[in-house]
């Protein structure tokens, strides 16, 4: 059967395909349309949620203090919803469809259900947004009971979650079809396996969300009289934190995918990388306990076990990826001929390609800022010093903004030519975008973590306490931190705005991509000097990866030092227990 | 499509022992099952159990 | 390549490089160490959150706090009573929209059993500038064993969002010699 066929009939079901000019793979047009729709919705909500974020940062900046208190809490609620949930999950739907139908060269299972899911997510996201903007639902993203929002706030979230669950089922269904129709041989590709990990975590996340949000919705309607406050938090965080673990798995899959596309990188070891994902599947969700460490009513045994992801086995998974990914890049670059010294492979990496730059910055910022701070923050006793301070948003802006969002931006630079079939407009501007955004996001994380270390509360409109009966002043350094946070917020907003504008303009006005320009459309890649067919897996013949060993050693040293510094601070605290 | 099919039949004809761990990692629905059960038991059920055992104040 | 199926059919048996194995071993041991650190701190450390918790109705807790305040009241500050309990006593503080009540005066180096609960929504007990942060729930009485190690005027900031007056919710603990 010719790969240029427009319509392929498999098992009695007709699907329309086009042939990808870059890979020769068949691209299911139904999957392609769904990827486009979800990616576009994601980017729209990124723009909205990002703008809200800028307003939050400018209000926290004491010298600017932009919004009134009512507006601040409203905007902060909307910011959390739109970026932590809506942007991320819409984009993850696109990733799931791409990692199944496109990478597996297969038709997408039940595209109509995919559209139903998309519609539910869109209606849900809009409903919750409208409810928040009407002003009676400034309950924060977490909506802790007994604080109550109007029923539509919860209903919107439920619809959104159901839509996302349909997307997960389609992903799993596509895996089944691909296996039955033998569109791949042996095991699924590593990137698809990472997406499977994300999908599995998503199923747990959404189920937990349903378990807690449906009763809360009924409570808001008046059908249920009481919801236990700790129980709510326990189950809510099984959704709220696990949803960020979906990001983790999805972004690691992207970290593997981009070097594979641009450099021909291969995993050093399929066995090691997949086992690391298995650690995620088993234990990553347990870290929902990070939000329960200073709650009354749950034992220290539960806290220590769950907050450590079962003796840090999921952290082990991340540390493995943290070596495998730069290792795969180093091995590929050395195969490509960049063998001089320890770091030629890194120096001569395609830093001018926004997909590569975004991916690598995301990896480094996530590891150094997000990963280390997450483990420290999630240490049961150390959490007493940091719970609900600005350290918490500082940490998760390193993971979700500098990590996930930057990784999603990076892969978008490849999705535009491959899926939207358009060239990136203004490549010179695009080249700078990941650096601007990465720098801004890193600043936001660092300065909020700094302010949090000084005790500054999160979700707080006025750190001068000007209307309080009893006065209190945070240390002056905290004000400096929040000023710098405001500046970083502006930088990130410029970087984020640039991304939205470049992508929207490219999709609308970019030059059409076909076989003649598809390789160039992926952005600059290093000149390949050797064929990569000599080895069947990444590390064969290049077991020695000195650059990666040095990077990993620097990371580990930083991790250990920062960990002990925090224990020292803790030991100076008033005695408890 | 057709080409891929014929290749796998020949590969399947020569039985190759696939290690148990690889079979686990290739069994997507088993992974889904354990990925949902493990956190449900260790995080949710254990947590709910503790919350249900809080004594009443005097 | 990460975007294609593994080339070898039985990839589980492919060798793993020695450096990778070393890193896995280091990362695993570091995880065991970090886990043990939390356990060890429970045995030997001085900063562990108490697990003593009771279910209590807001009205009942309020009555206890009022009886405590009446018994130990020594003065008022900004119209808020200041309670000065004897060392080792059970000490009460309630949170409600938008105050911490009453003000406490404690002695340095003495150990107190501090009872915390909320009358309405969740609040965050954030002792500043010490930086001890504990979540406070309605219907739960959390008994924390606390030993101040510094003297001075300390503030209790609410760090759980509790509505429009959240940022005005400040309480006070004095520690004297
Ligand atoms: Cu409060």
Ranges of chain A with pLDDT <50 over ≥5 residues? 1-5, 529-540
- Average pLDDT reading of chain B: 81
- Seen as an oligomer or otherwise, the chain set is heterotrimer
Instruction: Kindly report the CATH topology of the domain at 26-263 in chain A.
Output: Cytochrome C Oxidase, Chain A
Structural class of chain B: mainly alpha
The number of E-state strands of chain A comes to 4
Shape of chain B: rod-shaped
Task: Report the total helices of chain A.
Answer: 18
Biggest sheet architecture of chain B: none
Strand content of chain A: under 5%
Computed structural class of chain A:
mainly alpha
The most extensive interface between chains reads: A-C, 102 and 88 residues
State Rg of chain B.
23 Å
Bound molecules: copper (II) ion
- Distance linking N and C termini of chain B: 73 Å
Percent in helix of chain B: over 70%
Topology:
The complex is a heterotrimer of chains A (577), B (58) and C (177).
Chain A: E1 7-10, E2 13-19, E3 26-28, H1 29-60, H2 69-102, H3 111-133, H4 151-180, H5 190-221, H6 229-240, H7 242-263, H8 270-283, H9 300-307, H10 309-335, H11 344-347, H12 354-377, H13 383-386, H14 391-420, H15 427-453, H16 476-509, H17 518-521, H18 546-571, E4 575-576
Antiparallel strand pairs in A: 1-2, 2-3
Chain B: H1 2-13, H2 20-26, H3 28-51
Chain C: H1 18-44, E1 52-55, H2 58-72, E2 73-77, E3 80-83, E4 90-96, E5 99-101, E6 103-107, E7 112-118, E8 123-128, E9 132-136, E10 140-147, E11 152-158, E12 170-176
Parallel strand pairs in C: 3-6, 4-7, 6-12
Antiparallel strand pairs in C: 1-10, 2-3, 4-5, 7-10, 8-9, 8-11, 11-12
Copper (II) ion is lined by residues 98, 123, 158, 160, 162, 166, 169 of chain C.
